[in-house]
Amino acid sequence: MTHLAGKPESRQLYQALHGVGAMLGRMNSYGWRNLARRPTPRDFDAAMREAHRAGITPVLLFEYDGSYQVLDPPQPIGSYADWFEAGRVYAQRYRPDGEWGRENGVRGFGATVFSAINEPDVLATIPHAAYHDALAGLADGVHSVDPSLKVVPGGFATCNSQRDPTLRGYGPAIADLLESGKLDGIDLHTYYNARWFPLTRGREFSAQDCFDRVKAAIGLKRDVNFYATEYNIARVEAWEDGKLAASLFLTAIWDHLGVVGADRKRSATVLALPWNLGDTVRVDGPAYAMADTENPWTPDPRAVVLRTVMQLAGDMRFTALDPLDTGMFRLESDEAILLVWQNRPGWTDKPGRTWTVDLPDWARTAELWGFDGLRTVFPVHGGPNSVDVAQENETYMLRVPRRPR
């Protein structure tokens, strides 16, 4: 979004991010280097100033499209050395307390996640070896400035769209970089669709399933992290109804937030960013646009669900995750605990109307939330409780405040 800094499009996007309570956003650039493949290290300055004013931490994405290789003149992807230099200068400038921060009197704000080459597996024209060397160079360049910064490949599309866990070969191509830790994890894009990727048919159509199958296809032994810079429910055809899309989107959110690592207990998710939060149907078509109106931005039903989850769980931490059997999660904060149940066939081993929850001794009241907001408030007690959720085939959240309102 660097090319939109200060323009109405970026202001609307920041309205959307604030509207759902987000604090993180992906910042894309197609112009981060010149035709000689030399980085232009002030490329993000204006966008960084805007992001800082808006209170949104950027994930920096360096774009390279496979079609560039057939332009006249061609723009090759570049060498390891080209990408090393890009990683070095951009990390040096835009990391927290980097050059940009010092020049602008800003402390503690900057990019800690750097990414490159969105969806290389769609066109699949970049040679695998060249793709590997570009990611290796970027990672080594970033880490030469600060080893704690994270580098990940841009999101992959074809586990979702083609059911291809090799990601058309781009996954195995970077196996050594993932195994060594140069790349922190795998970014997968998941677009659920009633016809092509129907989560209503069970967790075979889930982010967790793709993550596990991709890791197996790559042959990883290290327990890498999970990233998602694009996901959504396609609000078209059988899922066109706004209420249905919202209900399914709540399941999709927790599918992404609740991804676990190899031990089936560790939370593997670093970030999960839906597409397309800022735009209306006029701009992005009916499938993924999550705004009902522009200027001011107002949320569509899916964005309302995201806002609800952020309000309930935004400051919480996972204390238990079981996406593969019960379909339940537990999160905690100083204010409350939150229990989540993916109560859909194929997402839990015991679907139904009754949710059995074990609550701490201090529990006195509970709030049952669904995709459409707060359903009911009722008394509870320490120990096992049976909750009648009234409707099957939905995702539910149970908030138990430590100090009843």
UniProtKB/TrEMBL annotation:
Name the InterPro entries on file: GH
Q: Which SUPFAM superfamilies match?
A: (Trans)glycosidases
Name of protein: Glycoside hydrolase family 5 domain-containing protein
The organism is: Rhodoplanes roseus
